[in-house]
Predict the structure.
Amino acid sequence: MLKNLKAKPSLILGISSGLLLLAIPSILFLNPVLRERLEQQTPLNSRSQDSFEAEKDQPSAVMNLVFLPVEEQETQLRAIADSNQASLDRSRARYLLASILLKKFEGGPALRLLQGLDKQYPALAPQILLKQGRAYELSNEPQKAQDMWRKVIERYPDSPVAADALYNLGKTNPEYWEQAITQFPRHPRTHDIILERLKDNPNQPQLLLNLLKNSLPEPSTNQARERLVQEFSKQLTPSDWELIADGYWDQNLYQKAAAAYQKASLSPRQAYRMARYLQIDNKIEEAKLGYLKLIKLYPKAPETALGLLRLADISKTQDALIYLDLVVKQFPEKAPQALLKKANLLARSGNATAANQTQQVLINQYSNSDEVADLRWKIAQQYADNDNFVKAWEWAQPITVNNADSSVAPKAAFWVGKWAQKLGKQKEAQDAFTHTLGRYPSSYYAWRSAMLLGWPVGDFETVRAKTPTIQKPTQRPIPPFGSDAFKELYRLGEEQQAWELFQAEIVDPTKLTIAEQFTYGLLLLDQNRNIEAINQIWSLKERETPEELSQWQSLRGTQEYWQALFPFPYYDLILKWSQERKLNPLLVTALIRQESRFEKDIKSPVGATGLMQLMPATAKMVANNLNLKEYSLTKPNDNINLGTWYFDYTHQTYDNNSMFAVASYNAGPGNVSKWLTRYESSDHDEFVENIPFNETKGYVESVFGNYWNYQRIYNPEIAQLLEKLPKVNPQNQPKP
């Protein structure tokens, strides 16, 4: 045995190092060379990994600090980091403190916190080594920094963090940049490399295409798309043009999309979108030819069904009926939509008998469709308008059973209760309101039902004065997508690192999964890109495959989903000015969400600006009343100050009735005054239904729907009441 050992001096060194470590641990710290060798040869501590798995989802004092100002965070993090007891939270505190110090360019203190932390905190081991490199760089030790970045690549070659290391090393050796482009095409550092190379040599369309294929729709992506079109159009393939066209279409840039689709390969989607653009551009005859071309070339494609429905909308009655019949015959999944269009078309042309027959076919053969729900609701309303509440009930009640997921179902469920009240059937009314609350808890009609059931949620006449209890989350949610490292960084508030890691980990930036898109929305909220975030999350319901819709429904059952859809940007300012004006802060929050989705710089086509979408003339009037000489509508404090004054003014105009105040905020006091003389206003629900401006009617329902959602999500009292509701069975809806 000794003979063999003498033949292998490197093995002797390995054994000797281990013996030294066991015998006299202090020598390890006196011998940097030996320590470095051991660090390079020592794998991650499996006990540390097991400990992380056991603790990662447990309550965390560090996670509770994320929403505090940095100065307050730092004080409390130091106390946790100085603890003598090893724990995941202690490692988290050391990591965050090091991050804070690096932002202050304090490399030495950061290095002391990071030393050996990669063994104790395996989830972020690559990030820790990367930060150590940065700490050495700040300490003016470039060689040690480069050694540390090489260690990242050697130990974690598949980790996206290696792209950061490759980027840093590539500043002195271009071969590392080539490796980053090949191995990590979606990483933001790779995108930085590409942009640097394009700056040195702009004539590289393949790099622009690489950027386009591997990036989310961020500003650099849009610039790459524009450059490809303007500078390299002759070098692009049909598949390149399709990629460009799809990007334009997704941004509603239909004219640019159509121009690009003309150069893409012919396909059902390409043909449909070309015709659809012409219709949007009001080139009706050309659009007809485009749809007819689609039908001829792809008679069985799903896009053809949409094309036939669109074609019917822009054709004469006889031709339209032919196209709709073709949809019914060849595309059964679109038949309900075609039959409803056909019935309406026949009714408008004066053929009542044929219209009724078509409606009956629709009801008999497609009773579960959304179109039948819309038809039933229309007929129910007609009976209700003639005070035939029994018939109205009979037509509306099946919607809540057969079409429970349709957009009109919450309204139908609520009005079944209202009509029951009018008929003196109080028990049935209570059951209907309870059903509405339980089955459609996020709807505007859930709030109306809760109010009529006596819950402490406020009515139109009392909601202004309420000050609901708000309990916001103390920690960030666990995103449904991403590695342990990404989830840790996100929940620790390391926003930039989480954002970069997310981009590197997604599978296909041009087609996000449900989990990826929701996580994308969470990250956009971090960046205060609120309108983009809310739209990303809201549009999840538009997915088409059963699997995706099932995933969306599961996500929709989580508290995190609703908190992301109804966030609290600028809440401190909202609270300040709401208290100043004696307004319900949740009502102001609800109005801002509807007006601007919390986008402070947004401007409408007519000039309404900022969070509360004030017109310049209105803002000037308010500023004069406040004796405010200087203000900016894009500054949140100024905008909310002016907006809440005006919202208070609309309340005072209508005796503090918040429904009239909200309607006036949208349509102007003159219109609301006219409606008050024209319609009976004692029943507020009926008044809302009678508002003749569809935009204002929808606005009122949306603002109060927002208000209700903020209550049910963040008010513990309301949340507890909702939890106590009996489980909903659609078959139990009361019948007349």
About this structure: Residues 605 and 615 are 11 Å apart (CA to CA).
